[in-house]
Amino acid sequence: MGNSQKNRPQRSFVRSDSSTPTAKALSAEEAVHFNKIQGTFGAKMLAKMGWEVGTGLGTTGQGIVTPIETKLRPQRAGIAHGGFKERTKQAITEAKRRGEHISDEEEELPKASRKAKKKAAEVKETREQWKKPPKRKTVVQHRTYEEIMEEAGQEAGAGAGLGVIIDATGATPREVSSITQVTSSPWGVTNDPTRLPELRHNLRLIMDMAKGELDGLAREAKALQERKKWVHDEDTRLRKAVVDEAELIQRLQKVHIIVDDINSKAKEAAGLYEPTLQPFGPSVTSLIHNYSPEYEKYKLDDIVMAAIAPVVRRLLTQWQPLEDPTFLTGELRAWKPALRMSAVPRDDSQVVLYGGFKADVTKKKEELVMTPYESLLWNVWLPKIRSCINNEWNPMDSQPLIQLLESWSDLLPQFIRDNVMDQLVLPKVQKAIADWSPKRSEGPLHGLVFPWLPHVGLRLEFLVGDARRKVKNLFRSWTADQGLPEHLMIWQKVFDKKEWEDVLLKYVVPKLGATLRDDFKIDPRNQVMEPFQWVMAWVPHLRASIFAQLLETEFFPKWLAIMHRWLANPNANLDQVTDWYKSWKDQFPESLTSNPRIAHGFTTGLQLMHSAMNLDSQARHMLQKPDFKPLGVPSKAQHGKSKRPDQPQPAAAGGEITFKSIVEEYAAEHNLLFLPAGKTHEKSRMPLYKVSPNVDGKGGLMVYILDEAVWGPPAEGDGVDYRAISLEEMVLRATKSKK
User: Fold this and answer.
1) What b-and-e string marks burial along 586-614, b requiring 16 or more CB atoms within 10 Å of the CB?
2) Which of 275, 483, 497, 739 could join 699 in a cystine, given CB atoms 3.0 to 4.6 angstroms apart?
3) Are 333 and 410 in contact (CB under 8 A)?
4) Beta carbons within 8 Å of 229's beta carbon, 6+ residues apart
5) Whether the Cβ atoms of residue 525 and residue 514 lie closer than 8 Å to each other
6) Where are the strands (E) in 317-360, listed by range?
7) What confidence score (pLDDT) does residue 173 get?
8) Is the CB of residue 263 less than 8 Å from the CB of residue 255?
9) Are 69 and 90 in contact (CB under 8 A)?
């Protein structure tokens, strides 16, 4: 059996010549495919069976030419879902090879061909839409009631043989008896999410797309409105700019005419024998009043100053500043808007330029350049003033120069005013003060200084420093018989209040005390009042406590001694003594009679007169002398009860409470004067003061104040230097000191 099967002839796939199909031309893709599989096991087997490349399988070649192709369907999609084509490209090719018809949708044409077909279809559809539909004649056919009923009966009977009808339109299929029950289902709007989900999804997509398109159209419309508004505004702006430019051109043409007129007048003025600025007036006035913006923008002051500079130079050549201080000020003040001056603030962050001109150190050098008008003043006006002040002006006659500077004040920039004051006026005034002498000089010292006080500003100390020293020397040489020195008293406003009081205490009060003690005599028969009046003239200028202490020390002891001698005379007329008492009391102003020290002196005299009235004429020689002691001088028993230095003390005369004022008031309470000695302590270099019971400063105790303490000299037998002492010790040692 095995041999029989082995010797059985093998069937072959070799086709007979009569049925052998001819090979088809292969496409590029098929050629590539067969080139890849050539030499494989499958290809060799097929070749042995008689198959050739390009022919179909089978004896007649009706099979496929290329291997079977697969085509994946979209995930979770059914057959032909969403228009998906199930046939592969290979199947379509084989069908075309067999001569079958292939639709345009299945045939994969080149992309360009598909676009061309689509575009042609769209063009055709668009043309059809624009075509006017042909007019059709409506034929009205009338039917009878019987014909209509018969037609309805035929239609009703036509559906009787349909059989069972299943309504599958709902979620659950159901059997109905008539097609009308299916069509009567509610197809309206429903909230059932199970009905037509694909339709609902597509509708939502369409709505979202429509909403997005509407929003885009709204934004585009808004942008178009804004663009339209911008175009309108830009058109308005450009039209206005054109009008403004035309107006500016017209104004500049007129400015050019005026400038040409100024230049022509400048050329004419150069040839005149007597130069004048009057011809320039109308043109300059027209520029600054009618074309002020252009004047500032284009700096036309350069042209104006260049035109008038030669004329101004010639005019100032013959000018006498002290004789005619207002020369040219009228013309320049009328042109003041045209005279540009730099306004530079004055503060600590500035440096000095041009003598007194201050400029911010942070500014660039270019910003400090002078304007044309300032340059004209600096190079033409200032040299004339400098020559006049240095060579012609006498400081004792200050009014002409002050009038000159006041006339030009608003026409000069700040740095030129400062230069004139700092470099010319003040140095010459200071030299005149240093050379001033009461015997050699023509006028008083205040005639040099006081006229300049309203003009020096912060330079006051620089001006009056040397003058104060001169005033102190004048007080030093002054005597009481010269009366009240009015020429010195007017300096009170130049001194500090405390400094002025120290000057009077040091140079005036001792001389007033010496006048009452040595020059003043009390004589009821032939009273000479001049020395007393010399002293009383100082009442408005000295502190009441100081003046009361002066009279208590030097006047009342003499006055009471004369009263006692008169009352002790048995032949004395008491009425005359009373009148004499009243006449002397009338010599004192009310500001003094209300002082406790002055009242104490008159009370003592009144008590002495009462004592004399109680005695008869024979016993008056026994009238005791008045025991007049200055008010406030502590006795030996009272020294231990004196006021402690740490107790509250009255304020100083100026209202400022300082330790020095406390010490001064404490000394005044104990009938002591606290006078500046005009010296300093060697080691501490602190100013020394004399605490003395005498108005002339003789005797007393020399002290200085340091670290809120009074420092006094060592006591007898004590070898240490100045040491801190209490106020009680200061009063005790000053009271016990000898003259």
Assistant:
1) eebeeebeebebbebbbebbeebbeebee
2) 739
3) yes
4) none
5) no
6) 350-353, 357-360
7) 74
8) no
9) yes
* C-alpha pair distances (Å), 210 with each of 27, 63, 189, 197, 224: 46, 52, 20, 20, 21
Tokens of 725: 């002492």
Q: What is the largest CA-CA distance in the chain?
A: 211
The yes-or-no verdict on residue 640 having pLDDT over 60 is no
Q: Average pLDDT of 672-701?
A: 80
Q: How confident is the model at residue 573 (pLDDT cuts 50, 70, 90)?
A: confident
Residue burial 243-252, b: 16+ Cβ < 10 Å; e: rest = eeeeeeeeee
Per-residue DSSP letter, 542: S
Q: Give tens-digit pLDDT for 170-199.
A: 667 777 666 666 555 555 555 666 667 888
Pick from 385, 464, 370: nearest CA to 424: 385
Does the predicted TM-score (pTM) go above 0.85?
no
Q: Which amino acid is at 172?
A: T
Distance CA(685)–CA(636), nearest Å, equals: 35
Domain boundaries, the chain: 4-73+81-97, 201-318, 321-435, 508-622, 639-736
Out of 430-444, 486-500, 672-686, least confident range: 672-686
For the record, the structure tokens of 571 come out as 């032949």
Instruction: Choose between 677 and 600: higher pLDDT.
Output: 600
Supply the angle between the helices 596-613 and 574-586 in degrees, to the nearest 10: 170
What distance in Å separates the CA atoms of residue 144 and residue 70, rounded to the nearest whole number? 64
Separation of CA 229 from chain center? 39
Whole-angstrom distance, CA of residue 98 vs CA of residue 426: 129
Mean pLDDT confidence for 269-291: 82
* Long-range interactions of 121-126: CB distance < 8 A, separation 24+: none
Torsion-angle region of residue 49: left (phi > 0), alpha (psi -120 to 50) or beta? alpha
- Say how many residues make up the chain: 739
Confidence at 234, pLDDT banded by 50, 70, 90: very high
Q: Which residue has the higher pLDDT, 146 or 238?
A: 238
H or E stretch including 315? Answer: helix 301-317
Amino acid identity, position 46: L
Q: How confident is the model at residue 111 (pLDDT cuts 50, 70, 90)?
A: low
- What phi and psi values does residue 509 have, to the nearest 5 degrees? -60, -45
Q: What is the dihedral of CA 38, 42, 47, 49, to 10 degrees?
A: -170
What are φ and ψ of residue 451, in 5° steps? -60, -25
Separation of alpha carbons 486 and 500, rounded Å? 15
